[in-house]
From TrEMBL:
It comes from Paenibacillus elgii. Residues 29-131, 169-301 form the DUF1980 domain. The keyword Membrane applies. InterPro entries: DUF1980, DUF1980_C, DUF1980_N, UPF0703_membrane_permease. The chain crosses the membrane at residues 50-71, 100-121. This is TIGR03943 family protein.
Length: 308
């Protein structure tokens, strides 16, 4: 009876080692597949891609080690255990519900990952997460708490012929960015500083009213919008798709029906201010809207050199 229990434990260990090796191989293969198809950017930020690829290599090494252990057990002196590890002629007490759940937790996500096509986060996810039309709120809230007293502007950047931009220790780089944007005849929101530009404009709403702006992005809509309104923006990603946030600016046009959700467009117009869902937000009175080729990387990221 003692030999039989040890015999079953050895069989279970061999099968488990083999299964874990296969599971790690599948994860590794999935990472390699999305990397080769240039879809890795759909899941993680560029600064995280090297870490993810390194993880794939580590998983491959670990999978090979697990496979080696399984083969070593099969070829060990316990040949009887190796021969009878077909797991079909009898039942094992080791296959408890907890073990089944453990393997299901590993296999189900992998199956879904291979079956669900790689896709960019779109308007449906934006509606679920909620459009962020006031990106400066993230800046102020992230620096609240014990630093709250310092959020009161105690300096200002005064243009020679134009408005001033009050700032504190946290908003100093945004005041400089806002001043630089204000001096441009046409404000162009570029991908490499997309988040910082929208944040600067939102932080100094009054100063930008009446300025001309050009921005590209995906068309998003919320049920609370008027018929002549939609939003144009991009998902901002910090580390991975789980922490992505849809940043956007409101757009008003006489032909909203021509621009369906998830279409990539470029909007040219004049900045105005509106009240939306009880908040003061910037809006673009669109003078022209055109379709544009979808960028290679659909998301935008924080500029690591901003403020330096």
């Amino acid at each position: 009876m003692t030999w039989r229990r040890g015999h079953h434990e050895n069989k279970f260990r061999v099968c488990a080692s083999n299964d874990s090796s296969c599971g790690l191989d599948r994860i590794c293969f999935f990472i390699v597949r999305i990397s080769r198809s240039d879809a890795l950017s759909y899941y993680v930020a560029p600064r995280m891609e090297l870490w993810v690829k390194g993880l794939a290599f580590g998983l491959y090494v670990l999978a090979m080690h697990q496979l080696y252990l399984a083969v070593r057990d099969v070829l060990s002196n316990k040949k009887t255990a190796a021969i009878t590890c077909t797991c079909s002629s009898h039942s094992h007490d080791q296959w408890k519900p907890s073990v089944i759940i453990m393997y299901a937790a590993l296999i189900v996500p992998l199956v879904l990952a291979f079956l669900i096509p790689d896709a960019v986060l779109g308007s449906q996810m934006a509606a679920k997460k909620g459009l962020n039309l006031t990106p400066s709120g993230i800046l102020l809230h992230s620096n609240s708490g014990e630093a709250a007293p310092n959020l009161i502007p105690n300096h200002k950047l005064q243009l020679d012929s134009g408005p001033s931009f009050p700032f504190n220790e946290y908003t100093r780089p945004y005041a400089k960015q806002a001043a630089d944007m204000f001096n441009q005849p046409l404000i162009t929101i570029n991908d490499d500083i997309y988040i910082e530009s929208l944040t600067s404009m939102d932080l100094y709403q009054e100063q930008f009213i009446g300025k001309k702006v050009q921005i590209s992005g995906y068309v998003y809509r919320l049920d609370s919008m008027n018929k002549n309104q939609f939003a144009v923006g991009r998902f901002a990603m910090r580390c991975c798709v789980a922490d992505s946030v849809p940043l956007a600016i409101l757009v008003e046009t006489d032909t909203p029906e021509q621009w369906p959700n998830d279409m990539y467009v470029v909007v040219l117009g004049t900045i105005e201010k509106r009240n939306f869902d009880g908040k003061s937000v910037l809006s673009i009175d669109a003078k022209s809207i055109d379709t544009q080729k979808v960028p290679t990387n659909p998301y935008v990221y924080g500029n690591p050199y901003f403020g330096n």
